[in-house]
Specification:
mainly beta
Length: about 675
Amino acid sequence: MFVLKEYLTSRRIRLRWCLVSIVFCLLFSGDLLCAQDGAQDLEDQRNQSRFELEEIVVTATRLGEPVKNVPRNVTVITSEDIEQAPSNNIVDLLARESGINLRSFFGNDKQAGGDIRGMGDTFVSNVIVMVDGVRLNPPDLSGPDLSSVPLDQVERIEIVRGAGSVIYGDGAVGGVINIITKKGQKEPETHLYSSYGSYDTFDGRVSHRGQIKNLRLNLNADYYDSDGYRDNGYLRKKDVAGQVGYDFGDRVTLTMSASRHEDVYGLPGPVTKEDMDSEEKRTSTDRPDDSGETTDRRYVGGIEIDLDKWGRVKAHRGYRFRDNSYIMGYNPLITRHDQTDSIDEDTKKFDLGYDTPYKTGDLEHRFQCGLDHYQTEYIREELSKDERKNGDLESLGFFLTNDLSLTKDLVFRLGYRYNDYDGRFRTDQHQLFGSLKRWVNGTVSNKEWTNHAEEAGLVYSWRPDTTLFAGYATSFRIPNVDEFAQGEEGLRPQEGSHIDIGGRYHLKGVMEFSVTLFQIMIDDEIFFDEDLQLNRNYDDETVRRGVEADVRVHATDSLYLWGNYTYVKAEFEKKGTTVPLVPEHKASIGMEWSILEPLVLSLTGTYVGSRFDGNDQNNDRFDKLDGYAVFDGKLIYKYKGVKIFVGVNNIFDELYATVAYSETYYPMPARNFYGGMDWSF
């Protein structure tokens, strides 16, 4: 035992020295910056896409506007970032960003996501994920399925931290993640991708996009097959999607898209605390027959009309159909059919928006208003419990925002939302009549709420390269289907108030730095009480205070460095205890180094501090989860349109978990390798 502790301690020391070394490069890269004056103008254009201040984002307001005008902490992950990063899925990409904490049960992108600003165990309902403007969050606690979005088709990812309820309504508490997929382009391009790695993992992708006159087209197909790090940890998925756009002159654009995702996966469950630290036992499972499968279809149609000086109108109609069946706690004495639970979700969405710029004197302003309507029919059959949960949910919201320029350098933003929610719920019983079982309908329970959200913010362009901002906003979250089905009497929506203060500094073509201070106070926060086995509202107000800092540096023409740090103190205000599964400290660092013109080395490292167990609201029942540091690397060789790459995840073979409940842990993968080829022509 002493030898094991000594070994683990020495490994942590090595990891800390690696962190210190790379941070040293970030802090003292100023000497390298001075050598760039001669070729800086040419390099500025090439490097501009790696910086964010001038990036145009749509997530913050559903409109295109520069990051520097948004009174929030905003991150843009570009297609170039995605191409260079040693990340194999969207979840890994998100986990390296400030303010986002990785939550993964099985080490892949199924049952995984990113917790923004310390929402804890209910982050799946407190962080909104959008794909091309359509909400990916389901009406239950399963969370947005990021495995249904192929990384190959992502053009960019926009992350807006903090309250977004004015624009996005229910659930936009910790932040909003908007994934924007690739569209057709003038120059036709075919893309082939293939990789193979540890755990017999194969990843194949093919896509084509182009344009014929006014018609733009993008088609893709993806196949992924992996045995997984753990026994019964397999994941096999297939994706196919298409998107078309047609321009009627310069004023009207029509778009249509369709996608289909299918997967099958194992559910290995947790391991004990003793097995967690064993390289052999941590991969085992006592649930070799638990599994699930999903079919997810999404369809979206949209129109955008440019009214010239009268503004723009946008409208989208979307449909989502999700079927998910699974077995948890397999019993060999019962047929698989009789113990397979299932979820059937049908969601319809419509949004309409209008925006227009206007002037008073020499000052430019912008007004936006819109409405959105969601309707979901939800059925969950749990044969293992002889229960069927039914939900019919409807939400209708109206919002407006106005950006008023007080001076040329000072913009005041004001926003408001009115939201009506109507939910009808019923729990049916599977009862025996003679030799047959039949469903008996339960009593219908109606839930109706009217919610409001407000926001106000100031953005001050102190200098052309420096922006300061401050904002206040409110948020709300309505209990979801699972929470109502197993909730205490009188379960009600939570309400939050948010304060953000920060600034951004941009040294053209060389460096960008941002820092944000935030506070979130939530009344009636919804959680699952392990002792009562009920979803309920916290009696105590929860408070989250923290700081997010990011830096990006083009140290030389061939070396790009970045880093970020997050501090979050998430507490129950009166008790002074910490919200479970929320680390106080998180830091990430990375570099991209063009060793030679065709050869690029990418390295990333992330440190996450210790956290309280997911079932330890009082902070005194179970051992804390250990902090961890994980480094990944990728080497890319480019020749014309061909890229050959090799990568290593978890370079130092850290044994860690991101999730634990009552001292049962979900181990993450140990050191693993992959390699492949990417060809565009």
